[in-house]
Amino acid sequence: MTEQMRSIVQFVRTPLGALGVFVLVLVILLLAGWIGPSADVRFEREVVEPADVPLAEVVQFGQERWTMLRAEGTDIAHGPCLDDGERFPGWAIDLVRGERVDNLPENQCPSFLAGRSPRLVELSLEGNVVRVIPESLSR
Prior knowledge:
Elements: H1 3-13, H2 15-32, H3 39-44, H4 55-72, E1 81-83, E2 91-96, H5 110-113, E3 119-124, E4 129-133
Parallel strand pairs: 2-3
Antiparallel strand pairs: 1-2, 3-4
């Protein structure tokens, strides 16, 4: 064994050297794709074909959820997401303050932000329709 090889073996036997080798192997595995998001996670990010339901039915469901939250005494002042594509795949139903006070991601439905739900119904804090995306659906 050469002197250079002995130095490498001695370094690897130290705690810091062993940690370095572990990190190196982990990085190689990540880059090779052996460790990482499962196929299910990748599928979840795909756009869902919107359920073929009338807009009125989606709005009615959103207004029923709004009524339920109000009856439970839930604080809706920050405009929670009423439905994130669970009831109607491809649709998100969100509560907004006024005429959309902000476009902050933390105040919007995650499935709409991620592009999984291409359709969005926004209801005011009073339960009225503020906006529908795409707008062509509201005409």
